Amino acid sequence: MKCSLIVAMGKHREIGKDNDLLWRLPRDMKFFKETTEGHTVVMGRKNWESIPEKFRPLPNRKNIVISRNVEYKAEGAIVISDLKEIEEHFNADSDKKCFIIGGAQIYQLALAADLIDEMYITQVNETFEADTYFPFVNWDDKQGWEEEKLFESEKDEKNPHSFTVTKYTR
Ligand SMILES: NC(=O)c1ccc[n+]([C@@H]2O[C@H](COP(=O)([O-])OP(=O)(O)OC[C@H]3O[C@@H](n4cnc5c(N)ncnc54)[C@H](OP(=O)(O)O)[C@@H]3O)[C@@H](O)[C@H]2O)c1
């Protein structure tokens, strides 16, 4: 089976700091919600814990949390300890998608396992101080990735940074 991946990153692939996001971009949050709603989302234990309790599990989505700790409890979510277990909780024949939603360790794990055939990347046009980065993907030789620009968003009073959303498929 294959999964989609969705991420928002700064100019240097930065995605987080102190187990939090680096920006508040309601327009990108809306895109994330609309894209993943109705589907399954898979996240690392740290990403799960970074979501305020009142917002988790992410509504209208099956939430799967990955932790090496088999005793770990995430209320309202399924806990797995190996990416391979996704298949047990996911019907690949349905029209539902499986979305890898981070953080960095889980993106790395999914890319290394060759699990990803679709990526939604929000490129924020700014640099940020960060401690967590999206893994390096060599876009130059494309590695079979086909690029489709979905939309651009200018900054405004509610969205302090401009960004571009691109979809990659292979
Ligand atoms: N900008 C974005 O789009 C975006 C998206 C998501 C997250 N983020 C940010 O990313 C940061 C969190 O990312 P992170 O890389 O620190 O953590 P993470 O990937 O969310 O979670 C790491 C945890 O996943 C579990 N894990 C890792 N490898 C595993 C394996 N091979 N098998 C089983 N479990 C495994 C471990 O949990 P245990 O320690 O419990 O074993 C590990 O501590 C935060 O700052 C968050 O805000 C940004």
Structure description:
The chain is of the alpha/beta class and 170 residues long. It has a single domain, classed as Dihydrofolate Reductase, subunit A (3-Layer(aba) Sandwich), CATH 3.40.430.10. It is built from 3 helices and 10 strands. An 8-stranded mixed β-sheet has the order 5-4-3-6-1-7-10-9. Strands 2-8 form a two-stranded antiparallel sheet. The longest helix has 11 residues. The protein is globular and about 40 Å long. The two termini are 14 Å apart. The mean pLDDT is 94. Bound molecules: NADP nicotinamide-adenine-dinucleotide phosphate. NADP nicotinamide-adenine-dinucleotide phosphate binds next to strand 1, strand 2, strand 3, helix 2 and helix 3. The site of NADP nicotinamide-adenine-dinucleotide phosphate (NAP) has 28 residues, from strand 1, strand 2, strand 3, helix 2 and helix 3.
Give me the count of strands: 10
What's the CATH architecture?
A: 3-Layer(aba) Sandwich
- Overall helicity: 10-25%
Helix-strand pattern: EEHEHEEEHEEEE
**CATH homologous superfamily descriptor:** Dihydrofolate Reductase, subunit A
Strand order of the largest sheet: 5-4-3-6-1-7-10-9
CATH class: Alpha Beta
Look at the helices and sheets and give the structural class: alpha/beta
Uncertain regions spanning at least 5 consecutive residues = none
User: Which small-molecule ligands are present, each listed once?
Assistant: NADP nicotinamide-adenine-dinucleotide phosphate
Measured distance between first and last alpha carbons: 14 Å
Q: Could you say how many structural domains there are in total? A: 1
Number of helices: 3
CATH topology: Dihydrofolate Reductase, subunit A
Mean of residue pLDDT?
A: 94
**Which range does the strand content fall in?**
25-35%
Pathway: Cofactor biosynthesis; tetrahydrofolate biosynthesis; 5,6,7,8-tetrahydrofolate from 7,8-dihydrofolate: step 1/1
Protein name: Dihydrofolate reductase
Family: Belongs to the dihydrofolate reductase family.
Pfam family, one: DHFR_1
